Amino acid sequence: MEQEAIKTQTLLDKDYAEVTYFPDQEMARIKWKGNVSIDQYKEAFLTVYDHAIAGNIVKRFYSDTREQGVVGPENRKWFEKEMLPKAIEAGMERAGTISDANIFKRYYLNMILKSINKFNLPFKLCGSEEDVVEFLMQE
Hints:
Layout: E1 9-13, E2 17-22, E3 27-32, H1 38-53, E4 60-64, H2 73-89, E5 94-98, H3 103-118, E6 123-126, H4 129-136
Parallel strand pairs: 3-4, 4-5, 5-6
Antiparallel strand pairs: 1-2, 2-3
Helix pairs in contact: 1-2, 2-3
């Protein structure tokens, strides 16, 4: 029996990030591609946020950081102070990250994890797309 194709919408496709929305799963993904400026970092997250506040349900979100470069502290601070509260307010219920966890990413992700814990948001760090999607689809 053939597996049914998963519906996707590409919201952003640039040389530094690809943002995809999965309407049937009420899920969004940012797949990072190398180093990003603060504006590029913000644009990727705000693309998901704008899609959610335009009436599209985004309960689940994950970031694929395996090809992401080093993330600067100003990007992380912006994410923690501005983006995370907005995302939760817009309906995000679960989040995850796929990582190869080199030392720089591990520091960045640990800092993100600390801020996520303040909001009591279910979050998991995974090694593969299958693992993160399985976690996000749990009720």
